[in-house]
Design a protein that fits this description.
heterodimer, A: about 170 residues, globular, B: 17 helices, about 35% helix
């Protein structure tokens, strides 16, 4: 089993209830917010948008979120898959969602990622993580502060070492 | 003998931010090692973490690769490397073709301590392995040669910082190597890199950067394409980031042999790659967050200010016998300052393991650096060391000391100045040994008159298709292969790692380890017989092609 961890500029890290139900392609849609694949969204776009409830989409690591076009604004949640922790494409997808497409909803990491990747994920725009049941919030808090400063600007808007130097 | 007082050369110095960054990174990795030892991380999960901290699992033990950014080392750092070799390894280290230092016999539990030692002298192992942006390399004559437009190291340092734990690019499809040069003459093998920057001047006389991408060796060798002829100074990080974005987004992830940027560019075509990069570049430029202010470039460049050169020194090299004269002929290069020279120490005395140095040798080199070269040395991609700023009057004394060390081989650029990867003696990827082949060839051509008669000839040996020994770029390349448990060696001719970069042509079936050195000799003899005027081996090969070389190489093997 897994649970949901959320952390954003607005709130401290916390475990949260997942209001979305992941629905397999072809399965009947339950009441309330659902999480569907890109294929299902493309096939049933109008019907899904006509439901008067929050909508989530899960993208494979090979699916660039730019495929969503202007529809990106309709989603409350975009889940990005890590099929294997070695596949780092979703780092770019999250960054594109935040800086190019202006996506303000939840970006959730799902799949096979490592504790040691969560700080990077946070930096590029992820604000939710599907983690195993035994995962402790302290692990995440520690991962966030292991490296105090950063050299690169990213979508988290943190001050870079160059900016900190200039402000001395 | 007492050590001289360490001289701090003009090179980048960590400020409190860099120091904290490296120290925290060491503790982070120390925690990861503990989690691995406790079984909280599987080897599969630990692997990318240890690789990005320089730790590689070799055939017999862990190998630790230490970054030497743009090849520049202070004497204090060299002494620390000697200390690590003595304390944690078998008393020697190995300088690699990416100007790093490798220790081949490291225990996992010692690694955090070693990294703490390195942090004390402003060194680290960050991103020396793994699928990330690797240690940035540069021309070893940087800041010393009159051939350059400007010192390439300030930009290299800026790239080092920008690429250190870049959140978007630490899990790339494959490794990503960047080099920086500043001359027409290419000593950094720019065109063989995933991405390279050459400092250039445009028609308006402005200095900026030519960016290349898509070079690489390995199974499918390619020479890099020009991505953009001229990138303005302030835009360079935005442009480099744009290339990496396209690579991370669009590279294949389904076949490890087709995941380097060279494959992406040569699949979609360079025009399409340029178009995609330009879209990202325009967006980054508009955002402005990666723009590089001139003030920042100046601030970093100030660290690399030229040393205070003495004036009025004699601009001639003293006489000190025929052996010294031979060494000067190949190992001493022109310096931009009258009275000074650049001296190359080849770690290639015939019979030696190319690129290896013992703790004692490193300590003596550190002393030489302090006494004669403002505390500084450079590591070259040809696995040699360069003293960048030496007074011509001191050359005989330097030579005498190198001779005691057995590092005075007068062979820079000659046939015995061979690049070789560690090969099957150490590496778990290798199919064949490289080191004994290099030793055998060097011994065969040991006679110096003969070496001079042959002239510039670059032999490069790899123990497998991954090409760490740059065999594709050798004037004569040698590739070790395994055929049913027996080591064979293929010959390649006509490659180059310089400004005339080219991929060597494969001659044909491999030679046994007993035949390979003689096959090389027969190939060289064809060159001697066929060359015209001042042609180098490479020039003759390019003029007459493979046929005669091939016929000679296989002559006695067939008989």
């Amino acid at each position: 089993m897994s649970k949901l961890l959320t952390y954003s500029a607005k709130a401290a890290p916390a475990f949260a209830a997942d209001s979305f139900t992941a629905v397999a392609d072809g399965a009947a849609l339950p009441q309330g917010p659902v999480l569907v694949s890109l294929a299902r969204f493309q096939a049933e776009r109008d019907a899904l948008l006509a439901r008067n409830t929050a909508l989530g989409i899960q993208l494979k690591s090979s699916e660039n979120p730019e495929l969503l076009g202007a529809d990106v604004q309709h989603f409350a949640l975009i889940a990005l898959e890590f099929p294997k922790f070695r596949d780092g494409r979703a780092f770019s997808w999250a960054r594109i969602l935040r800086t190019r497409l202006g996506f303000k909803g939840e970006i959730r990491a799902v799949g096979d990622f490592l504790l040691d990747q969560m700080n990077y994920q946070h930096r590029v725009g992820f604000d939710a993580w599907e983690v195993p049941d035994h995962f402790k919030i302290e692990q995440f808090q520690h991962a966030l502060v292991e490296m105090t400063n950063v050299y690169q600007p990213s979508s988290d808007g943190r001050k870079t070492i160059r900016e900190l130097r200039a402000a001395r | 003998m007492l050590n001289p007082i360490p001289v701090q050369p003009n090179m980048y110095r960590y400020d409190e931010f860099d120091a904290k960054f490296v120290a925290e990174r060491v503790e982070q990795f120390s925690g990861q090692v503990q989690r691995r030892l406790k079984g909280e991380l599987t080897e599969d999960q630990f692997k990318p973490l240890r690789l990005m901290n320089g730790l590689y699992l070799q055939l017999h033990a862990y190998m630790l690769r230490i970054a030497v950014p743009y090849g520049t080392l202070s004497s204090k750092q060299v002494r620390k490397l000697a200390y690590i070799a003595r304390t944690y390894d078998k008393n020697f280290g190995h300088f690699t073709t990416r100007t790093n230092m490798q220790f081949n016999w490291i225990r996992l539990v010692d690694v955090p301590d070693i990294q703490r030692h390195l942090a004390e002298v402003e060194m680290h192992c960050i991103q020396t392995s793994g699928n990330c942006v690797r240690n940035v390399t540069a021309d070893q004559f940087a800041g010393a040669t009159d051939e350059e437009l400007e010192d390439p190291r300030p930009l290299s340092e800026i790239i080092r910082q920008w690429s250190s734990l870049h959140p978007e690019f630490v899990f790339l499809a494959r490794k990503f190597k960047i080099a920086v040069g500043s001359c027409e003459k290419d000593r950094a093998a720019l065109k063989w890199h995933d991405m390279a920057v050459q400092i250039v001047r445009n028609e308006q006389g402005r200095t900026g950067y030519l960016v290349m991408a898509g070079g690489g060796m390995g199974r499918t060798p390619y020479v890099a394409h020009v991505m953009k002829e001229f990138v303005e100074r302030e835009d360079i990080l935005a442009y480099l980031e744009a290339v990496l974005r396209v690579y991370n987004q669009d590279s294949r992830r389904d076949n490890i042999h087709k995941q380097r940027i060279k494959i992406l560019i040569n699949t979609i075509g360079v025009e399409e790659m340029r178009r995609r990069v330009d879209l990202e570049f325009q967006e980054l430029k508009a955002m402005g967050t990666l723009q590089l202010p001139q003030a920042e470039l100046d601030r970093i460049a100030a660290y690399f200010a030229p040393p205070k050169f003495e004036t009025g020194l004699p601009d001639t090299i003293p006489e000190a016998g025929p052996d010294f004269a031979n060494w000067v002929r190949t190992n001493v290069s022109r310096h931009k300052q009258p009275g000074y020279a650049i001296a190359t120490i080849t770690l290639k005395t015939p019979g030696q393991v190319p690129g290896d140095a013992t703790s004692e040798q490193m300590d003596v080199i550190a002393n030489l650096m302090d006494e004669f070269s403002v505390g500084e040395v450079r590591v070259t991609h040809e696995q040699n060391l360069t003293l960048p700023h030496v007074r011509k009057v001191d050359l005989p004394a330097i030579y005498a000391r190198l001779k005691e060390l057995d590092f005075a081989a007068p062979n820079a650029g000659l046939i015995t100045d061979i690049i070789a990867c560690p090969g099957l003696d150490y590496c778990d990827l290798a199919n064949a040994r490289s080191i004994p082949i290099a030793q055998k060839i060097a011994k065969k051509f040991e006679n110096l008159d003969r070496q001079h008669q042959i002239g510039e000839l670059k032999i490069k040996i790899s123990g497998c298709i991954n090409a760490c020994g740059h065999h594709h770029a050798g004037h004569i390349g040698i590739l070790g292969v395994d055929k049913k448990g027996v080591e064979f060696y293929q010959l390649l001719l006509g490659g180059s790692g310089a400004e005339d970069a080219a991929i060597g042509d494969i001659m044909g079936p491999g030679f046994t380890e007993h035949d390979i050195a003689e096959a090389v000799e027969r190939v060289v003899n064809v060159y001697i017989a066929e060359r015209q005027g001042t042609e180098r081996f490479l020039d003759t090969y390019r003029r007459i092609g493979m046929e005669k070389f091939k016929a000679a190489a296989y002559e006695t093997v067939a008989a």
